[in-house]
Amino acid sequence: MSAIPTEFSNVTAVAKANVYFDGKVVSHSILFPDGSKKTLGLIYPGSYHFGTDKAELMEIVAGACGVKLDGSEVTTSCAGGEAFEVPAKSGFDITVSEGICEYICSFID
């Protein structure tokens, strides 16, 4: 897997935030010239479940979390510099025990 990006050039940033779980998860969308989209976000301590429409690549920029994909009994740890994939039409539980987990979510076709 390639290195997690530290910045994106030539994108449109959407100012309106995506706010989930009473502000415990917040992200902003960035739109690329080729029509693709990513979200950049923060996850505060807690446990949350997200459903997916498209497959997703979740890259952890900083912090750490535990992840359990729908249909799995295994929770894996994921820290800054690591990533995990989520299949389309499924979901995952993500838990942040302390600090803030920063992420980049890419939507995979």
Structure, described:
The chain has strands at residues 12-13, 18-20, 25-31, 37-43, 46-51, 55-62, 64-69, 76-79, 83-86, 91-96, 101-108. The two termini are 17 Å apart. Strand 3 (25-31) and strand 4 (37-43) form a beta hairpin. It has one domain: Jelly Rolls (Sandwich), CATH 2.60.120. With 109 residues, it is mainly β. 0% of the residues lie in helices and 56% in strands. The strands form two sheets. Strands 1, 2, 3, 4, 6, 9 and 11 form a seven-stranded antiparallel sheet that branches. It has a four-stranded antiparallel sheet with strand order 5-10-7-8, with no helix packed on it.
What is this entry, summarized?
By secondary structure, the protein is mainly beta. It is 0% helix and 56% strand.
Describe this protein with a few key phrases:
109 residues, mainly beta, Jelly Rolls, 7-stranded antiparallel β-sheet, 4-stranded antiparallel β-sheet, 11 strands, 56% strand, globular
Determine the fraction of residues in helical runs and give it as a percent range: under 10%
Largest sheet: 7 strands, antiparallel
Give the overall silhouette: globular
H/E topology pattern: EEEEEEEEEEE
**Domain module count:** 1
Mean pLDDT: 96
Radius of gyration: 13 Å
CATH secondary-structure class: Mainly Beta
Mind telling me which CATH architecture this is? Sandwich
Detail the poorly predicted runs. Answer: none
Q: Output the number of helix runs.
A: 0
How does the helix and strand content classify structurally? mainly beta
